Amino acid sequence: MSSTFVGARVRAVRAVADEVRQVELVPDDGARAYPPGSHLDLALEIDGLPVVRSYSVVGAAPEDGAYRIAVKLLPDSRGGSRRVHGLAAGDRLELRHPTSHFELDPRRPGYLLVAGGIGITPLVGMAEVLTRQQHRTGAPVRLAYAGRRRAAMPFVDHLRGLLGDAVVTAAGEDGERLDLAAEISGLHPDGEVYVCGPPRLTDAVRACWAAQGRPARRLRTETFGTAGRHPTEAFDVEVRDHGLTVHVPRDRTLLAALHDAGVEMVWDCLRGECGLCTVGVLGDAPVIDHRDVFLDAAEQEDSTRLCACVSRAVGGRLTIDTGFRP
Amino acid sequence: MTATPSPLRAAPETFARREWPRAAWYAAAYDVEVGAHLLPRTVAGASLVLFRTPSGEARALENACWHRLLPLSEGKLLGDEVMCGYHGLRYDADGRCTFMPSQKTVNPSARVRSYPVVERHRFVWVWTGDPADADPATIPDLHWNDDPAWAGDGRLIHVDCNYKLIVDNLMDLTHETFVHGGSIGHRSVAESPFEVTHGKGTVTVTRWMIDVEAPPFWARQLEWRGAPAGNVDRWQIIHFTPPGTIAIDVGVAPTGTGAPEGDRSQGVNGFVLNTMTPESPTSTHYFWAFARNYALGDQRITTLLRDGVSGVFAEDEEVLAAQQRAIDAHPDKEFYNLNIDGGAMWARRMIDLMLAAEDDSYAEAGAQAERDIAEHHRADPGDGAQREVARARAEAERARSGS
Q1: Which of A31, A105, A273 sits opposite B108 (nearest CB)?
Q2: 3-state secondary structure chain A
Q3: Who is most buried in A321, B10, B16, B111, counting CB within 10 A?
Q4: Predicted local confidence at residue B176, as pLDDT
Q5: Which one of B89, B109, B133, B380 makes the best mutation probe of the A interface by having the most chain A beta carbons within 10 Å?
Q6: Residues of B with Cβ-Cβ distance to A90 under 8 angstroms
Q7: Do A273 and B135 touch (CB under 8 A)?
């Protein structure tokens, strides 16, 4: 499933919107075809430590032998966006060829793509594929694209070129909002919505989707678990069964901090999907920013567990149980 | 393997290329094989599970559970959902997971690949390439198999050989004389001239045998139809569509009744329909049918003809499997080609063109990258640019000469 890393060369870097840079990466063993919605993993070094970061691939296919990623400089990031923004043509790094956790079903009778900010990246390739097959399928495609500032929203012209009037944009600073309820009610009953953006947007789409009685499995989301409902901050965690207190800095996950402190854990997806790294929450917990999709809304509300790979404490000390019973 | 040898050496390349195109429709099953049960089948190297939803639609999913890879065909079909027989994960007909045990949510990544499926001309066709390119208009034409003006039936046989060996076999019927002497073979087949023509993605081999004795298979059919005994004009017109579909227009008419000129009304006409689906490099699902255009309501004739052709093809199966074993036993040996292989070589060329079209998207990308780099650095020449261009050239050279 996860192939090994291969060497790659940065062919070009250019700004595609305010604070968004597109990087072209040419892998040494050649770019391969990938399904729309794919991401690739980059091996980066941040503060001297090797880390892996996933980025959605822009476009339906490699362009002239290069994968394209578009990365927004995020003050809250774990350092990946800063590192990628520091790349220049000719730099070398390692990547894993694209794979998809956000696959497009090409046979639905209608599509709604919903993007928030840099979440537009996986949807560009989807829009390209869907418009390419449209002459045959006739399936309508709409794109609802929200961002804070218009100048910080990449690919708008390209998407308008593909979809014309079927693109609606909303810039928060101009007081614009997406009319999600109207967009969803206009979608074919067996159509699908593909959402990529911050949790607030995903939550809003999910709520409208459920309110209109549509089946949950026809709502598709991309989850990297990197964005929360609260700003990212450092916190301390008491690991009661190990008799330890561990500091979790802003740029480390709870799971990484526990691992660094020698706490044995198991994990797999690192995106808040599989639930293997969940830990129990003890005592009076602070606010927990659940960034996973493993726990359902009620379980997140209860907050008796959290996914250590993505979720964080906000404004207080957390006490957890990792299930260690020596 | 050399990607671009000199044009004069192009023909033998067919024996060194990748086995089969991905961007193609392959017959995965006969319509009657697919029902409310799980049918495992490997198509062009992909392990699939086939089934029908309660509304009657045929579906094809990757035959391995997302979780621990148990073949889904070992599980259960529950309405339009497939349940894994190990931990009960369920997938909808599109391959999306709808249930995971012991948790309230379903991991949104959980899915098995779903293959585009179209049912046409009594076959369940599966597209193994990029689903966005699955255009049903490119499904090979085998309409005789369910056209009301024709009657017939066929079978699926599993042959232990590469699918191209069956293409070779059907594109040149000279072998009838030597392999099928008791049914359709006759020395006239090996003696009569033939013509090979090709179009865009088609190859046609035409052979007429004038004023010849009718072999037993055809003599019987003339008798059923009530035609007079005696010599016949016999035709075999072979139509190939890559990668593995061959429809053969065959028949006989009493000599002198005008069949070569276009009036086949006094004769009997059939279509031998064949579509070969590679399973592995050395095994093939071979779907065939025989359709006739007379005595349409006579089920007895349908059965006799199907059984008759089955007997003929059993003789081919033996030859083809032995041929594959010999190929495997002599890895250092190559094929030689005779004049009679013209149709087969054109068919292989059409397959090669499909494969090349798949490869070219990458080769072209590499060449474009080289042009871009040169372009990019022209404005700002320097040692770095020179090195970059030299490296790109070396890379492209490697790509051209490497495998």
Answers
A1: A273
A2: CCCCCEEEEEEEEEEEECCEEEEEEEECCCCCCCCCCEEEEEEEEECCEEEEEEEEECCCCCECCEEEEEEECCCCCCCHHHHHHCCCCCCEEEEEEEEECCCCCCCCCCEEEEEEHHHHHHHHHHHHHHHHCHHHHCCCEEEEEEECCHHHCCCHHHHHHHHHHHEEEEEHHHCCCCCHHHHHHCCCCCCEEEEECCHHHHHHHHHHHHHCCCCHHHEEECCCCCCCCCCCCCEEEEEHHHCEEEEECCCCCHHHHHHHCCCCCCCCCCCCCCCCCEEEECCCCCEEECCCCCCCHHHHHHCCEEECCCCEEECCCEEEECCCCC
A3: B111
A4: 85
A5: B109
A6: 384, 388
A7: no
Residue in chain A closest to B396 (alpha carbons) equals: A30
Query: What domain range includes position A198?
Result: 111-221
Minimal Cβ distance to B104: which of A103, A132, A299: A299
A263 with A296, same domain: the answer is: yes
Cβ-based neighbours of B31, under 8 Å, separated by 6 or more: B58, B119, B122, B123, B124
| Within a domain: A106 | no
Q: B20-138 belongs to which homologous superfamily? A: Rieske [2Fe-2S] iron-sulphur domain (2.102.10.10)
Per-residue pLDDT of B330-350, as tens digits, reads: 988 888 888 888 899 889 989
Total domains, chain A? 3
Query: pLDDT confidence of A76, banded at 50, 70, 90?
Result: low
pLDDT tens-digit series, residues A23-68: 999 999 999 989 999 999 998 887 777 778 889 999 999 999 999 9
CATH code, domain carrying A298: 3.10.20.30
For B:168-227, CB contacts with A below 8 A are: none
Q: Quick check: B107 and A293 CB within 8 A?
A: yes
| Domain spanning B143-349: CATH superfamily | Naphthalene 1,2-dioxygenase Alpha Subunit; Chain A, domain 1 (3.90.380.10)
Out of A100, A123, A139, a domain closes at: A100
User: Exposed/middle/buried for B55, CB within 10 Å: 0-12, 13-18, 19+?
Assistant: exposed
For A222, name the nearest residue in chain B, comparing CA atoms only.
B108
Residue bearing the bigger pLDDT, B102 or B391: B102
Fold matches, B20-138 and B143-349: no
Domain boundary among A60, A76, A100: A100
**Which residues of chain B does A12 touch, with a Cβ-Cβ cutoff of 8 Å?**
376
Which residue does chain B place closest to A125, by CA atoms? B132
Contacts of A62 in chain B (CB under 8 A): 365
Q: Sketch the domain layout of chain B as residue ranges.
A: 20-138, 143-349, 364-401
**Given 3-state DSSP classes, what are the helix, strand and coil percentages for chain B, each rounded to the nearest 5?**
35, 30, 35
DSSP states along B137-149: GGS---GGGT-TT
d(CA B180, CA B314): 10
Residues A61 and A152 in one domain: no
CB A275, CB A294: distance < 8 Å: yes
Q: Do A65 and B105 touch (CB under 8 A)?
A: no
Reported ipTM exceeds the 0.85 cut: no
Q: How many CB pairs under 8 A join A and B?
A: 82
- Measure A129 CA to nearest chain B CA, in Å: 7
**Residues A119 and A209 reside in one and the same domain:** yes
Instruction: Give yes or no: residues A252 and A314 share one domain.
Output: yes
For residues B282 and B162, is the Cβ–Cβ distance under 8 A? Answer: yes
